[in-house]
Amino acid sequence: MLLHKNRKRKIVKRVSVTAQENQLLNQRVQASQNPSFQNFALQMLLTGQVVHRDFSELKQLRFEVAKLGANVNQLARAAHVYRQVDDEVVDEMMTMFQEFKKELDDLQQQLLQKD
Q1: How many Cα atoms occupy the beta-carbon half-sphere of 89 within 13 Å?
Q2: What is the chain written as a DSSP string?
Q3: Longest Cα pair distance anywhere in the chain, in angstroms?
Q4: What mean pLDDT is predicted for residues 52-64?
Q5: Between vectors from CA 51 to CA 49 and to CA 57, what angle results, nearest 5°?
Q6: Percent of the chain with pLDDT strictly greater than 70
Q7: How high is the mean pLDDT of the chain?
Q8: Residue 79: which residues within 8 A CB-CB, separation 6 or more?
Q9: Is the whole-model pTM more than 0.85?
Q10: Is the Cβ–Cβ distance between 77 and 59 less than 8 Å?
Q11: Residue in 62, 72, 79 with CA at minimum distance from that of residue 94
């Protein structure tokens, strides 16, 4: 089996199953809401349980933050063009947004690493 050099997991384990067992496994993978059999099987083999985390709210929050970032950039651009806002205020606004975005990124990393 051809594996990419950049792969983290280079050892392949194979399991043979009957058609009925395959159907049951597929049902369990779907019920677990895991993205793939690989993730499902690895979690089951290592921990004996599969934990599903719902990141839909985090995805929605990131989408909203991206829209907010676009608005902040538009405000900064307009402030520079019309020169009615001090550069310090614009820089402070951009810095605050970047700090907020970094905190969100850190939170996301903590959620992804939690096991």
Answers
A1: 10
A2: ----TT-S----------HHHHHHHHHHHHHHT-S-HHHHHHHHHHHSS------HHHHHHHHHHHHHHHHHHHHHHHHHHH--S-HHHHHHHHHHHHHHHHHHHHHHHHHHH--
A3: 72
A4: 80
A5: 175
A6: 91
A7: 81
A8: 85, 87, 89, 90
A9: no
A10: no
A11: 72
CA atoms within 13 A on the CB side of 69: 14
Structure tokens at 46: 């290592």
One-letter amino acid of 2: L
Say which amino acid occupies 35: P
State the residue for tokens 């829209």. 67
Residue whose token pair is 């839909």 = 56
